[in-house]
Amino acid sequence: MPKAYEVIADDIRRSIREGDRKPGERLPSEEDLARLYKRSVPTVQNALRLLNSEGLIDKQHGRGTFVRRPRTAAVRDNARHQWEKDRASEPLEQRAETGSTEHDTGLELNDLVFYAKYEEIEAPKELADALGVPEGAPLVRRTYRTRYAAETAPFNLVTSYLVREHVAANPDLLDAANEPWPGGTQNQLSTVGIELDRIEERFTARPPTPEEAEELELPPGTAVILLRKISYDTDNRIVDISDVTLPGDRTELVFTTPLERW
Prior knowledge:
alpha+beta, Arc Repressor Mutant, subunit A, Chorismate lyase, 2 domains, 6-stranded antiparallel beta sheet
């Protein structure tokens, strides 16, 4: 037998999913909902807490409770890496037309707001060991955020690490003012003679930190997907390590593996 608050939540959930309540629409006050369902205000509050935990509604302090607007989804498939490699050798005009976020979301370049920050850091032991450099060697740490202009949260949180010595031959690769770089990292590396041979991606998941939940604007109870992307060049050398935090409520991961025929 469902509890009273679950019955209320079911009815509001149905009205949202069937389109009776539109994204951005304000719900009646808790008192009005209590009268509508002939239940107590605490019972209504329990129902709203459940819907909020499912990401269907947003409670905004001082304004009320609203049907949550679905955010633009991103579909990240493993074919994107070959697409990026092919694109890296295209002429500048073609490279400048689109990028990986557009590939994943279907948005246009003008729909996006991009942020990049570059810093030089000393390699901590874990990164130094992975990149095959001495601990303390200079790395270029690059931080990226890209969001849809109509939204306020980025699609993901990206931190990339390059060995400074690998890219210093092209000073443009040390300056964040050159971002967004047409053709992305694979084209950047190609300017210093580095070709990627393969990319390894490792995924885990966990609850977000408070800082991640705030920046990604995650509904309560939403997990984040952690991606470590390791790029190897044709000499079997790791040339880029990227840590990507993906919001679980708007990211779909698609892996297609061609199988050889018997």
